[in-house]
Design a protein that fits this description.
Layout: H1 14-23, H2 29-48, H3 61-74, H4 85-104, H5 122-125, H6 131-138, H7 146-161, H8 165-169, E1 188-193, E2 199-204, H9 206-218, H10 242-255, H11 264-277, H12 282-289, H13 294-297, H14 305-315
Antiparallel strand pairs: 1-2
Helix pairs in contact: 1-2, 2-4, 6-10, 7-9, 7-11
């Protein structure tokens, strides 16, 4: 099929692109929601710069550069903060994905490869905690209250399973009905729908399972979501939101006296590095995290460099070789 020049403004392709993400790519609802959010900002920027009628083939590298400057220097999040390099890249990745969609539909436009991502510092790539930090954090919630029990169960489950926040939020009560088996020595398996709608198995430690039991016993309702927002009066809004959990974890880290910024993904990083530090192989960690490519999992290897050096010094005989 020949490449064609569309006469429809690039902004009109947002909805078809999101439909494509759902139907053909099978992306999760959370990813679709994020793409929608990121690309709406691009559409808003086009409108503010008088380019709302810009056609796909009219998009140039200069437009992209101006948009990058806007993301870096002008745009502020709803909280009034400038975007980090990492956050800027989320907006650019979404735009790249839409340009790739147009190219796949044989619509002439700027190649997605022309959108370069902002370089991140290595220390922005991965942040993790040691086990003592985790212990301090999970001790913060007041377990004399329902909310405290819920928050403790959430953090225990994060560290036990390495789940993504979108995966944890999506859990329903009936997903963990098997926990009625009260064996305290058993590690439980749970199949979840992960990123890209791929089914994977996560593991729940006996301690995490016990906290989930305590939480479920404290529930006095019949709502479907596993983790509920007790302040919402709308039955359809009872599922605890990712934002709520992010805020809770950040607050617990501060109250625990931790100096670094802690997010739900920090707990996932901590889970992965803890496995590697205790001798797990990279392929197993890849499977446990639900990474499609082992290259994604390799970001964790630099934190275990000291252990690998110790292994090298202990077992490698090169130092004993003579000239």
């Amino acid at each position: 099929m020949a490449i064609s020049k569309s006469q429809k403004p690039i902004a009109t392709y947002l909805i078809p692109f999101l439909d494509y993400c759902e139907i053909e790519k099978g992306l999760s609802n959370n990813t679709q929601k994020n793409y929608n959010q990121y690309l709406k900002l691009f559409v808003k920027w086009l409108r503010s710069t008088g380019n709302e009628n810009l056609l796909p083939h009219e998009l140039t590298s200069e437009h992209i550069w101006d948009y990058r400057l806007y993301l870096a220097r002008e745009y502020k999040s709803p909280r009034g903060k400038y975007l980090s390099k990492k956050s800027q890249n989320y907006y650019l990745i979404a735009l790249r994905a839409m340009l790739a969609f147009l190219a796949e539909r044989d619509i002439e436009t700027l190649p997605s490869s022309k959108i370069k991502l902002a370089k991140q510092k290595d220390d922005e790539t991965i942040t993790f905690l040691d086990v003592h930090d985790i212990q301090k954090m999970i001790a913060v919630p007041n377990i004399a209250t329902f909310i405290g029990i819920r928050d403790r169960a959430i953090m225990e489950l994060f560290f036990s399973s390495g789940m993504r926040i979108s995966e944890l939020v999506a859990l329903n009560v009936d997903n963990v009905s098997f926990l009625q088996d009260k064996s305290t020595e058993r590690t439980y398996e749970l199949s979840i729908v992960g990123k890209g709608k791929h089914i994977r198995t996560i593991f729940i430690s006996p301690r995490s399972a016990e906290w989930l039991r305590v939480y479920l016993k404290a529930r006095r309702d019949v709502y479907k979501p596993l983790f509920i927002n007790v302040h919402s009066k709308d039955p359809d809004q009872k599922r605890l939101s990712p934002r709520h959990i992010q805020t809770m974890i950040s607050k617990c880290a501060i109250l625990a006296g931790l100096s670094k910024k802690v997010t739900p993904h920090t707990l996932r990083h901590t889970y992965a590095t803890d496995l590697l530090n205790h001798g797990a192989d990279l392929r197993s960690v890849q499977e446990l995290l639900g990474h499609k490519n082992v290259a994604t999992t390799q970001i964790y290897t630099h934190v275990t460099n000291k252990r690998l050096r110790d292994v090298h010094e202990k077992f490698h005989g090169g130092g004993e070789m003579k000239n």
